Please model this.
Amino acid sequence: MSSRVADRRGAFSIGLQQARYRFCLAWLALRMPLTRPTLRVPDRLIVAPTDLRATDPYIAEEILEGRFPLAGRVLVTDGESPFTLQLPSRGFAERLHSFSWLRHIRTEKTDEACANARSITANWIALHGKRISGIAWEPHVTAERLIAWLSHSTVVLQGGDSVFYRRFMKSLAYQAKYLRKIADYLPETETRLRLQIALSMAAIAMPSSPAAVRRQGLKLDRELERQILSDGGHASRNPRLVLDLLLDLLPLRQTYINLGHDVPQKLIPTIDRMYPALRFFRHQDGDLALFNGASATPATELLSVLRYDETSGKPFKALPHIHYHRLAAGETTVITDAGAPQSAQAAHSAHAGCLAFEMSAGRHRYIINAGMPKFAGRSYRTLARATAAHSTVTLSETSSSRLAKSPLGLAVMEPFNVVHCERSEDAQGNDWLSATHDGYLAAFGYLHAREIGMNVKGTKIKGHDKFIIPEGAARGGKKELVAVARFHIHPAISLSRIDAETILMDAPDGEAWLFTAPGLEVEIEEDIFFADVSGVRETEQLTITFTLPMVNEIRWMLKRSE
Model:
């Protein structure tokens, strides 16, 4: 109980941090314009750091024609500034103001395309560059914009005159100063780390004293130490964040080296730790597992990061600090979430997917979680965080960890504990994982226990789900509770029924697996896959429904079809 009280206090602390940040933002909105005449403006840029993210010439052509295809929407400007129009969604506004789309202009680096990008940039400076307010100055948007402007300065400045150059440099300096002012007021989330990455990049890309470069390197080191754990995972437990951070950390490392600066002490060891974690979450089809906020992974971005991997080696069996386990044999992989949020900060993005798993074989993912939609609204994002959106068991259609409200109304996961987790190998060499969580204990009086085992050839996976009344505890009332075990199926897999308890799962290349639950009825139901690269997509799921206390455990099996 004491740990739960501590977690609630932690959530309250996060709310206070957010309130403190909002107060700081309001103060800066009034104060910074008054101090702007004293701003030290660099006279030049030293380097344009590399951007490893994927580029698309189609997007470059569309932007040149006055159409902005961002965040799953398209804005037609008809010759107007996009910043004066009603934007389609918050996600669109964030992408537009972050200028992450500048990287696509590299593919069409004509004078016309660069002049258009420069005009849009000048327009942003005129409309938003002097007033700190709105989405344009949200910390994560500003950090992304600072990195984008530095990385693609050659695009924006090509053909520009000295007047624009001066305005551009002044805005860069102003944005960097703003980020330095708010850095200490932010909660310890990935936004704070990205902010330090952006400031580190600015410190070496613009003329700075050696002392200033060292100071910023120390701040980056502290944030890396806080957020990247010893097993290489991020404190949020989001697999996709490992990739996203490497996309910025790798160019930063190389820029330090190219310019002859001392690399921050923690930077290279942290990158080396993150690579094994990235490989840990990689499925047989090359995509990353969908846990705790992960969404679709562009293959080009993943490959562009992996080509710099110097750590090599097979993926680990477990990431003990962020509490994931991997069972792998032959061409089959199972990845299981066996942990709780690392902190109250992490609970803001955590999913209620404890004991959920994903399974891939050959070149395909078969069983997945629904994942997080990249561009959908709040209602879809809330649904994606529920237990029902994960391949695990729900009790009474209730998530194992409910969404609560922090003082500022931000959705956080209520705390729970993993009360048992054990990895073992039986006499035949089969790999077993057993874990139990108490997310249903307070509301219903049960612990959920799950056991998953894989044989040495990777051709058979056995599962066992059970609801347990803890020793010495009595379940309140005699109400029957309906439990549903869900197994979300990747959209590429087709399902066909063999009999009431057996379903055939067919991949496009002909590889097939049988799912069976002896003595139980397996249903095929409609489902939604949130994390497809094309957006929210229809798919199917397998469900097994049973009623407590009459039936308190089920067994199921996956077997490669001959």
